[in-house]
Amino acid sequence: MSNTEIWLVIALLAVATFIARSSFWLIGHHISLPKRVQEALRYAPSCALAAIIFPDLLLSNGAISISFDNPKLIAGIAATAFFLVKRNMLFTIYFGMAVYTYVRLGL
Fold first, then answer.
1. Could you tell me which InterPro entries the record lists for this protein (predicted)?
2. Burial track 51-80 (b if 16+ CB lie within 10 A, e otherwise)
3. pTM for the model
4. Could you tell me the end-to-end alpha-carbon distance of the chain, in angstroms, rounded to an integer?
């Protein structure tokens, strides 16, 4: 692939990204979504977050690892329990990282 082709692909991807991201911004007020779709879209951020977090917690060396040998899973469970009790996101992050470090280093 020549340099010209690479730059052409980059430019086309930039244009495609701009069109896709700005379309809702530019014509969004002309589109009315049904109430059922609006309610379903409320769960999109939490679904996206779960899709990012769960593979990281459950996969170890490319395989699913649901055991006490997986420090990420233990830290995730401990952080979830901490959050359910304290309801403080910042301290939950600190607590989860402390548990992860403790379990990983085997202190």
1. Brnchd-chn_aa_trnsp_AzlD
2. eeeeeebeebeeeeeeeeebbbbbbbebbe
3. 0.62
4. 52
